[in-house]
Amino acid sequence: MIKSFGILYAGNIDFADQGFNGTPANERNYDNEILIKPLSTAMEIAQLADNKGFDVLWLAEHHFQREGYECIPNILMMGLHLANHTKTLKFGCAFNILPAWHPLRLAEDYSMADILTNGRILFGVGRGYHTREVETLGSPLLDAQANRDLFEEQVEILFHAFNDRTFSHKGSNYVLPPEVPYRGYNLNEISLVPRPINLPVETWQPIVSGNPRGLRFMHKHGIKGLISGVPATTVERNFLAFQQTGLEFGRNLQLGEDLCLGLRFCIAENQKEAVEKATPGYEESLKFNGPLGFFMPTLTKEQETALRDKANTEPPPSIMDGIKDGTWVCGSSESVIEHLKKIESKYPGLEHLMFNIGVGTNKELFMEQLQIFAENVIPAFRD
Fold it and tell me: Which of 26, 146, 344, 352 is most exposed, with the fewest beta carbons within 10 Å of its own?
């Protein structure tokens, strides 16, 4: 039964010329006074969400994006700030990009946020998908195997740091603590100070491919999964794979349990009006994310060329394709409720739903849609 409603805000600026006919993504380059505006937008979204009954505001960590699509580099700092200006809303990390961090620095920062917000920060871990971010900060991404190995070792360290009063670690990437003299003795163990007070740490991770190794790793550590921006057929496949893999670890989960489903919404009087409202932001998001491979189904080379160069080649997908494959839900409030009730029936263990509208959507439409969703849709799922 769906009972927790979240929002994804990745931190984009307002684009004056949205869509396929606007400035190509690689040519967008903004001054700092524009790039800092998403920080105040996040505050407006958080306060509206807090007042309207949303449960979680999910934030995304990204770096070096002069193009203006995802402009929040530290979501723990952002979440702590927003928690001080809201009452009950929680703040989810979607996600802390582990290869961009030393795991013990991340563990310390999360612990501080957990204590200072009294548990209102939800931890999240990801491997990253922007080469500009991960490789610039000194970790591998082009080498997928090295990236996976590093990520898994970092998660192991994080959970030791959170849960063990003292610990040590020796791996391929880290020896913690280093075997050095300190105040008259040789280091052989270390303690995180402070440690989180809300244990075990609720941890989330994206599920994209549903790779068996990745799913087993999640169940080993009790990590929950967030599935977003993929067709309904992929959602079903990954939900089933997560449930089946859990049985290997003695976890008899209902279908959808320990998972969050992210969908993109636009609500209006009818589908035609909703599509018209959502299309500019959809196109802007596709211009940025498509060439990164972060769009499903994956774009062809011809479609990437059409997005980048406005060439007269194979046209890119439209928002109607997203509606057909279940990535987008556009229509009246009643039709959205009906759609979500069907999802609720199909996945009886699903409790968490995440509202999204894409990284190209300007603030005015984002805020409008949050208010409509909160007032017209959420009440249908609560007593």
Answer: 26
The residue type at 199: L
CA atoms within 13 Å, Cβ hemisphere of 371: 9
Which residues, other chains included, contact 362 with Cβ-Cβ below 8 Å and sequence gap of 6+?
Answer: 14, 15, 18, 281
Classify residue 310 by burial, with Cβ atoms within 10 Å: 0-12, 13-18, 19+.
exposed
**Residue 336 in contact with residue 270, Cβ under 8 Å?**
no
pLDDT(312) > 60: no
Bridge partners, 4 (sequence order):
352
Residue type, position 319, single letter: I
Over residues 13-24, the pLDDT tens digits come to 999 999 999 999
282, 365 in Cβ contact below 8 A? no
Taking the C-alpha atoms of residue 158 and residue 140, their distance in angstroms, rounded to an integer, is 19
Q: At what angle do helices 37-52 and 75-83 cross, to 10 degrees?
A: 50
| CA–CA distance, 191 with 83 (Å, rounded to integer) | 27
Alpha helices in the chain (DSSP H): 32-35, 37-52, 75-83, 103-116, 131-134, 144-163, 212-221, 232-247, 271-289, 301-309, 319-325, 333-346, 363-372
Helix (H, G, I), strand (E, B) or coil at 214: helix
Return the number of other C-beta atoms located less than 10 Å from residue 240's C-beta: 14
Please tell me the distance from the alpha carbon of residue 125 to that of residue 189, in angstroms, as a whole number. Answer: 25
C-beta of residue 75 within 8 angstroms of C-beta of residue 103: no
pLDDT in tens, 129-180: 999 999 999 999 999 999 999 999 999 999 999 999 999 999 999 999 999 9
In this prediction, residue 299 carries a pLDDT of 65
* In contact, 367 and 44? CB cutoff 8 Å: yes
Nearest to 206 by CA among 227, 182, 190: 227
- pTM of the predicted model, to two decimals? 0.95
Cis peptide before 297 (omega within 30 of 0): yes
**Cα Rg for the chain, rounded, in angstroms?**
21
Q: Given phi > 0 = left and psi -120 to 50 = alpha, else beta, which region is 194? A: beta
The pair of structure tokens assigned to 190 is 């270390």
